[in-house]
Design brief:
The chain is an alpha/beta fold. The protein contains eleven helices and nine strands. A nine-stranded mixed sheet has the order 1-2-3-5-4-6-7-8-9, with helices on both faces. The structure holds alpha-D-glucopyranuronic acid.
């Protein structure tokens, strides 16, 4: 498999230092992903954005945490919208800002609400808070519905120029969700219970594709985690194993920009591959996880993307993954700045996955 080299610029020069990576190669790769895969967001932080804490429950999670329900509202030429973020902080924190996790949830609000709906391994807020982290979740579908609606609803309808044809690299739904997670970060920067400089952005599956893209674009996130993200997430497209570019564009035409379908069946023509998306997290710690029975997401392809991202971490003098062979299940690789594990079982975000992410965060966020 012939992969594009993250360490060679478009004009063919070798990237020999962290400075050249930052100044030249990183922006080049970001631009390639914008143009050919996820599309370009027309707006960053909207000027008129507002945060409103709509609810504060001091006895959340059986009394151990305070939960804030925050509404982030914004307005554009096509109307108004808002996104909810639910944040739990430990009642033991006593005003000390906590590092935390932001889960980009593509599940409905009611399904990720431990106080009202009970505990759920997808969102183990209580376990996260018990480990000393703030546990925040934002709701992707508040930002943009997960269906092909010709980009009429959600933030596309709000921020795209009305009555103007969409460009082939206009943002699609994954870019819109990533944009939403960045707005949650805008909020964290204003919340004194949260240490916004130590937040890991995390997502599962379509949310894991989103967390990688979000972390690539928004370097305020100090750690990037993708759980079972598969095709157009962490898995190398050129392997064409499991879901392919053609399959994903057919099944989910709203996730990517129009240009992406040029690569249906032609993965080898792509100017990027997904190891470069993983590498865009550098020098921040990044973590990719697979499940043994999740062949649709191509576990080996997810692992190999980490292997091939390693060179970029080395430029920074950091250890990357430190392995070239796929580890056995339940044997996480966490010694460097790229973490990886394979979990036994099916596609899903489980307690075991979360435990590994918190172990990795302990190593990087709690360094003396
Ligand atoms: C489908 C899709 C995947 C996606 C997954 C999910 O299986 O083909 O690309 O990751 O849904 O989000 O659960």
């Amino acid at each position: 498999m012939d992969l594009p080299d993250p360490l060679k610029t478009l004009d063919g020069k070798k990237v020999t230092s962290a400075e050249i990576w930052r100044a030249k190669r990183r922006p080049e790769i970001l631009e390639l992903f914008r143009k050919h895969v996820y599309g370009r967001a027309p707006v960053g932080r909207p000027e008129n954005m507002k945060f409103k804490v709509e609810e504060v429950a001091k006895d959340a999670l059986g009394g151990v945490a305070t939960r804030k329900l925050v509404r982030i509202s914004f307005e554009g030429p096509g109307g108004k919208g808002s996104m909810r973020v639910s944040v739990y902080v430990s009642n033991k924190a006593k005003g000390k800002p906590a590092p935390g996790f932001l889960l980009i949830s593509h599940r409905a609000f009611g399904k990720v609400d431990p106080d009202r709906k009970g505990a759920n391994p997808f969102w183990p807020a209580k376990a996260i808070v018990a480990r000393g982290y703030a546990a925040a979740v934002c709701f992707a579908q508040d930002v943009d519905p997960d269906k092909y609606d010709k980009f009429k609803n959600g933030v596309h309808g709000i921020f795209d120029k009305p009555d103007t044809p969409r460009a082939p690299d206009a943002w699609a739904t994954i870019a819109a969700w990533a944009w939403g997670a960045s707005r949650a970060m805008d909020y964290f920067e204003t919340d004194t219970d949260i240490d916004a400089k130590r937040i890991a952005v995390l997502g599962h599956s379509r949310g894991g594709k989103t967390s990688l893209w979000c972390g690539a674009e928004d370097q305020r996130f100090a750690m990037v985690i993708s759980n079972n993200s598969g095709c157009s997430g962490a898995a190398l497209a050129r392997r064409k194993s499991g879901e392919t570019v053609a399959r994903i564009n057919k099944g989910f035409p709203h996730w990517f920009c129009d240009n992406y379908s040029k690569f249906d069946g032609k993965e080898e023509d792509m100017p990027v591959d997904q190891h470069m998306l993983v590498a865009l997290a550098a020098p921040r710690p990044v973590y990719v996880a697979s499940a043994s029975k999740d062949s649709w997401a191509d576990p080996l392809g997810e692992f190999l993307a980490c292997v091939h991202a390693e060179g970029v971490y080395k430029l920074f003098g950091l250890n990357g993954l430190g392995a070239s062979e796929m580890p056995k299940p339940e044997s996480p690789l966490q010694s460097g700045h790229i973490g990886y594990h394979l979990r036994t079982g099916r596609h899903g975000l489980t307690e075991y996955d979360w435990k590994c992410y918190m172990d990795f965060a302990d190593k990087h966020f709690r360094k003396k």
